[in-house]
Structure formats: C-alpha cells, structure tokens
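Annual report, structural modelling task.

Input specification for the iron/sulfur cluster complex:
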Amino acid sequence: MCRRLISSEKVPAESWNDWRWHIRNRITTLDELRCVVAPDEDETERLRRVVARFPLSITPYYASLIDFDDRQCPIRRQVVPSVEEIEDPDGVEDPLGEVEQSPAQNVIQIYPDRVALTVVTQCPVFCRFCFRKRLFSTTRGGAVRGLEKTIEYIRGTPQIKDVLVTGGDPLIASDSFLERLLRSLRSIPHVEIIRIGTRAPVVLPQRITPRLCAILSRYHPLWVNTHFNHPKELTPEAREACDRLLRAGIPLGNQSVLLKGVNDDPETMRELVRGLVRMRVRPYYLFQCHLVRGTRHFRTTIEQGLRITGALRGHVSGIANPLFVVDTPDGKVPLLPRRGLKRREGDYVVLETFKRTEWREYNPTADGQRKGREDH
Ligand code: SF4
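The model returned the following structure:
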C-alpha cells in the first residue's frame, strides 16, 4: 500500500467506489503504514509493540483525508497508532463493565428496556480511542459466534423494546448477513426499535450503497447513529452516504467523542455540529473519552467538555447541541454547563442565560400563593 492507493485520482473509479475494494486494501501493517505516513525507523520499532497489542486498520478512503505534512492532523491522530497507547497506567480494559453486564452471549444490558447486540468484532478502521479496544480482532469478517442463541434470548425477553446493533462496526458485514439479522429481529413482536451504530458513513461512505439502504428500509422503525468527530470528516462522499440513508427514511444521529488534539476546542466543535446539521445529521451525544486502556493521550477533563458545550449553547441552534455525557457502568450521566438554574427567590427562580444575564422566572412553589407576578 503506497500513497498511489489512497487517492481517488489514482485508483480507477470502479475500485474507489467499491467498499469491498477499500476493505481489501486496508492499511493493516506497519510496512504499509510507513508508505503512507512515514514514521521513522525508531518510531516504527516502538510501534510494533503497540500494533501487536492493538491492531491497525485504516481504509484507503479515510487515509486519503490525512494531511501528510501535519503530524497533529486530527484524522491521523484518530487512526494512526501511537506509542502512548502502551503508556497508560490509569486505563482499564472494560471501563463500562460490559463483560459483567452481559445476560446472554453477545448481549450487553445496562438499561431495563434496551440491549446492545455485538454482531462483529471487526471495523473498517480501528479508532485508537475506541472504548471496545479489547474486542479488536484481526480475523477477517469477525462475525461473533452463537448469534442464533442470542436472538432466541431477545425473543424470550419481552422487556427488550429496543436493540442497538453494534460491534465492532456492523456495516462491515455482508448485505445478506445484515438482512438475515434484521429479519430475525423484526420478527420479534416486542422489539419496537432497531438501531445501528456505525462509523461507515465517516470512514467508508462507499459502504452505504443503494442496495444496503433498500435492505435497511425494509425493517423500520430503524435508526442509525454514526460517529463524526471532526469537520474534516464532512466530505462530499460522507454527505452523499448520509443522504442515501436519509432518503431511505432512516433518521441519523451523531455521537462524537471528546478527544484531545482532535475536537477539544469550541471552534472545532461548533464547525462540526453546524456541518452535521447542514447534512441533516442530528448531533446527539458528545461523550467524555472513556477511561479505556491505551487512550490516555486522548483524554481531556470533564470541565473542558462542559466549557465546550457551554460555548455551543445559544451560539448554534438548539438542534445542533449534543448532550455531553459521561458513560458509566450504570448508564450515561448527562452533564449540563453550569449556567441554568441559579437560585430561588421566593416565588421566582433566577436563571442565567447564555448571554450571562439573569432572568427571574415566576415559578411559585406547589403550596405558594399566586402572588407577586405583577411585581415582576
Ligand atoms: S468504528 Fe467504532 S467500534 Fe470500530 S474502532 Fe471505531 S469507535 Fe471502535
């Protein structure tokens, strides 16, 4: 793999537009990587230990977005291994305790009415910050075992109303696998909603084929949550992929992760959420980076996340504001910027607006008399 294979101008269009070509030509070894981002000998040697632990995978499409002259390029940072990954004393293998919260094979259940169903352990790219780094697999296809039994478990558990199909990245699987899976899930009367979590529109937009969209559209209500982290990822190809999903009637949400050196500043985040809304992708969550082993160099403080979401409020439209959350083994905890409810003054509460002004809102307590409104 050399640079000629990571440019749409140098690869025949029928190959570049074929998602399977990108999967076949992924950068998965350090030798291939050296051709692309040229780490020096010494760095390459040190990276061997990293890649032995956490495999490498980058699609030619996503590699084509890297600025080769910028070692801090936000695209590069997300997918090119770093020696810092094996220097992380605080990180843990499974920060959300998913292994323990698994009532059946391939199922993670944290909430009473929802489960996450892991169907593959492969992804088109391996994001260096992934909270499921422990599942990275070099096996081709990477489909999990025992899926039939898993489906039977969901069928026999009527409180499950909502199934999130995840992985790995489920859209790395073939159309026929996905169709079989969705047909099985849709045949379960109590499963009301199917959601798919995928980075394909970001790292492999060619995967969102008209055929795939036609399959997905047969299993509504079906939602897709994708994962853009930086405005550089909002390419024409990504926009077209999202448009195809939307035209198939699939609502699109975006879950970003707050990543040091990628998107941990208000301007970048503002540009990202505005761009997403222009593409009709609703910014949904902004996650605090998990305390997962090998991601120390990506972590920022929770206070920084609050500063960024505080800087969005009032400066971008309401639909462009993601909810900042810390994911814990007991579920997501939403955090709001400190502005908002300041104090109560008798029958009024004092609110702070995004302009940092105070507003006294008439709001009597339950047993309060309706008095004083005219005093306001
Ligand atoms: S695509 Fe998703 S599951 Fe796969 S490595 Fe990236 S963040 Fe993890």
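The chain has a mean pLDDT of 92.
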